[in-house]
Amino acid sequence: MIGLVKAEVRKLFTTRLWWIMLLVMLVLIGVNLTFITAFAGVTNEAGGGAALPARDTAEWVQTAWSSGSGGSIFVMILGVVMITSEYRYQTVTGTFLTTPRRRRVIAAKLITGALVGLLFAVVALVVVAAVVIPATLLSGGELSLSESRIPQVSLGILVSTSLYGLFGIGLGALVRNQIAGIVGAVVWAYVIESIFTAIPVLHPVGKWLPGGAAQALMSIDVDTGLGRPEWLPAWGGALVLIGYGLLFAVVASATTVRRDIT
């Protein structure tokens, strides 16, 4: 199994796609952090409160730190490409001839997807820390790990980003078409999940989606003007994410083992 995982890692890291996705992720996180930093504590003209907490508060640290979760979609895309490229470039036949037990191949891809997600999450957290910590201290705030929930948010980012690699592999195994898989991943992350997790009135549904479960695991509890979120408890979010991970792993295995590869 270790040999198969190494082979999958080599396949991925000999392409340019992984570092392109990494750079795009960093740009997106940078834009989010710029927005969160620039508009921190700014009150609206209608006389309401600030949409974002001030930079010297634990709530702002929590909000800014959670921007590290922006890498999930790119890991999901890599997961889609990891399996659909085998069909697109007709390398799947050679792969399964070399390793006839298809479940071992899928297991290796799932492990590789999770590891890549973990790598992206670590890079994202390093960048976020490099921005948030100085911004908080220079604004006169104190960096409290407990009040700002940095450990919980970081754990949520690590787990959810890793699992999104599995989601991508499961989706890719299901559709097998690379373009359809990537479009499906983008629509899911930026349209469906964004709607159900951004609007509090939709949280009764959104909290059961992977994005809502990730928010619950990160223990995000900041009112940005739309009302406080109603997520599951952190342990509930973890169970939902694990459930989705297992579901997509089963989908990837079942669809690949039973289908004709020609």
UniProtKB/TrEMBL annotation:
One Pfam family of this protein, by short name? ABC2_membrane_4
Give TM segment ranges: 20-43, 63-85, 106-133, 153-175, 182-202, 234-257
Domain of life of the source: Bacteria
Q: Which residues form a coiled coil?
A: none
- Which UniProt keyword terms apply here? Membrane, Transmembrane, Transmembrane helix
The molecule here is called ABC transporter permease
Which organism is this protein's natural source? Planotetraspora phitsanulokensis
